[in-house]
Amino acid sequence: MIKIFSEIFQYRFMLWGMISSDLRTRYKGSVFGFLWTFLNPLLMLLVYGMVFKTVMRVSLPHYLLFLFIGLLGWNLFANSIMSSVGVINRQSSIIKKLYFPREILPISIVLASAINYVLSLVILIPFLVISGVYPSWTWVYWPLILIIEVIFTMGLSLFFSAINVFLRDVEHMLSIVLMAWFYLTPVVYTLTMIPNKYVQYFKMNPVAGIIVSYQDILYYHLPPRWKLFTYSIGISLMVLLFGWAVFRKLNRRFAEEV
Amino acid sequence: MKKYHVEVDSVSKVFRVHYGKNQTLKEKILYAGRTKYKEFIALDNVSLKVETGSTVGIIGVNGSGKSTLLKIISKILYPDKGQVKVNGRVASLLELGAGFHPDFTGRENIYLNGSLMGLSKKQIGYKIDEIIEFSELGDFIKEPIRTYSSGMYMRLAFSVATALDPEILLIDEILAVGDAAFQKKCMDRLKQLQKLGKSIIFVSHNSTDIENFCDVAVWLDHSKVREIGDPRRCVGNYLRESMNRANQGNSTLTFDHSIEAESD
Q: Which tens digits make up the pLDDT trace of B206-227?
């Protein structure tokens, strides 16, 4: 394990190169370019806001704000998974011809999405303040929650990107799975809206613990619910170890299969 | 300093050649356990030690496992059996255009290629003028490399790989696409590296290069090591046998060292 980390550290320039080219080329050729980093979540917010606030009439105060906090957190998770699942196949040309720690490919995607998340705070924070939600001391937990989310997302990205080399259905299955997962995670609704007898099942979803913690610290000005959040931390670490182990094992045949 | 830069210890590598691969879930379930593939033995119990500072030439007909051996040494492929120990930083010139992005300019690709070898921008920055000068690409260095000819690709790749101070250099017959003058220049650069104590492993069909330039030659035949030793003797035996085979009309590449297998 330590050997892998030191090797990735040795290849940090490549990792950084991959991250920055991901960020630069993501919207290359589009008219709005980098602005899409901000436009994309805003437009999503518009759609979900219209459906759930205007049509379904969710009566939560500052509902758009609540929605926005959850959506940004969710996007980091879902977008990373969706773009890393096929990354080994997409980069087959360098995998067949060069040696480098293959982990760099999915990891760079997750880290680029995390940077994107941090950049989108440029609109989230003014949005919070304009809506009358002022910064509070509970915001100090923000980086911690982000790190846990990145760990969980990285674990799944490593796992799925490796599996997808041998079973290309994973890529197609994931988009449906993620849609279901989205609605099973308290992004558009709150934990309290879930009927009591089902709440415990919803809490088993580690992403719920992460998204709810974002909402707690930013929207409710409460510290994270430790029981729920520690559960997410534990699961995240396990997922990362498991995903990495699977990746290491399958990695040996990547160059032959892609 | 370690006595050996590269130690390949009884390495075997088997490729699965699928006939119509079951890649989707539906096919995997429908045809579970009935996937047909042939196993192609690309390397069969190959051992090779490269002494620090020595140059090893690999010869053999097409398909005898030369490139697979280089890919295993550079850790792109993993051996199925046996072990490979590499003590030092490797630069490999395996295929034209590996690690280059066609839309980037020559200069940008030098940085890209260097970072793929684990080097920082700064480290590459020290060498970049030297690299560009050696490649003789002139104004082309500012053009995207998709406009390059294969000889120009090779110039760039060779200049980068040899300038970034590797301890071990792997070269897979890409020099052949360069013009005579540049090939000469490459050989001179390689001789310089030899003097600096670098190890070079070198696949070539040019027997003169192998004879003049290598300390040891390895003849791979049907995925096995047929002979290791003095380059002149090896090359002589190799050429004699392949000419004989060609004259008898049985030099067609066969799949005979493969096993039919069924299951997944």
A: 888 888 889 999 999 988 999 9
CA distance A45 to B33: 48
Tell me which chain A residues have a C-beta less than 8 angstroms from the C-beta of B111.
17
Enumerate chain B positions whose Cβ falls within 8 A of a Cβ in A.
Answer: 15-16, 23-26, 28, 71, 74-78, 90, 92, 94-95, 98-99, 111-112, 114-116, 118-121
ipTM for the assembly: 0.78
Domain extent for A151: 2-257
Domain total of chain A: 1
DSSP type of residue A172: H
Tens of pLDDT, residues A212-248? 999 999 999 999 999 999 999 999 999 999 999 999 9
In angstroms, the separation between the Cα of residue B88 and the nearest Cα of chain A is 13
pLDDT digits (tens, 9 = 90+) for B59-79: 998 888 898 999 999 889 999
Enter the pTM of the model.
Answer: 0.86
